[in-house]
DNA sequence: GAAAGTGGTTTCCTTAAGGATACCATTCAC
DNA sequence: GTGAATGGTATCCTTAAGGAAACCACTTTC
């Protein structure tokens, strides 16, 4: 099968545009992969939180997973970790400015999720 | 520790707002989970494609994974699968209208990924 | 009739993600 | 001194995700 047959059967597409899109998407997903990172960033969008507060807010996450995910997010400069020398030591996690650039992604995901729940409640 | 102490130490937050956000995000992620679904939807955003075309476009995916992911996306009404009775049988995959509602999520992810690549190239 | 392309399925295997549980040091209240 | 809260770490285990390779049926081309 040669190029022209291929081009006749299916609409021509800019393959570079296409693979650049995939690459960019993969770059993003590499950092956001897993079950917990996006939810964590999502709640930190409301303001800083302490470790146990996060754990309470994000139902079902274990201490181990939370500390692992927080470490990775910190490595990627999406959040900061601040130790306060209070009575029992407390640690605050907060989105960096860079982390805040994810707000649009998260809010799109949020509104799609809301609408999707509607859809499956009614339609299906 | 009682409510008032909690409220003094950390900024009051609307906990319902917060957990509703997490719920919605999880609803979305449940459907989009895994390494391949978002890239698949991403390329189908450019127009319909056949099985082997998809496999060529999405580098690294195996036939098994591709057919599995396509099946799941079809179950969730995000894509349609159309068998054409051509010489060797061909099958076209296409975003449904519903699948197209993910376009905003995908494009946000795309542009964040692009910008992130810039950031780590320069900064780090 | 052999090769190559269509769209897959099946089997087997490895790895990574995630969960359960226990534990640690510290401090405060009782 | 007991219990609860702070923020974790260490260990062990299960499950799910994903990959490699072979295979199938069909059709066209050479």
Condensed summary:
Chain A is mainly α. Chain A contains 7 helices and 3 strands.
Topology at a glance:
Two copies of one chain form a homodimer.
Chain A: H1 3-9, H2 15-32, H3 37-44, E1 49-50, H4 51-57, H5 63-75, E2 79-84, E3 90-95, H6 97-100, H7 103-122
Antiparallel strand pairs in A: 1-3, 2-3
Chain A binds a DNA duplex (30 and 30 nucleotides) through residues 1, 34-36, 50-52, 60, 62-68, 83, 86-91.
Write up this protein.
The structure is a homodimer of 124-residue chains. The first copy, chain A, is 62% helix and 11% strand. Chain A has 124 residues and is mainly alpha-helical. The first copy, chain A, has a three-stranded antiparallel sheet. In chain A, strand 2 and strand 3 form a beta hairpin. Chain A starts with a helix and ends with a helix. Mean pLDDT of chain A is 88; it is low at 1-12. Chains A and B meet through helix 2, helix 3, strand 1 and helix 7 of A and helix 2, helix 3, strand 1 and helix 7 of B.
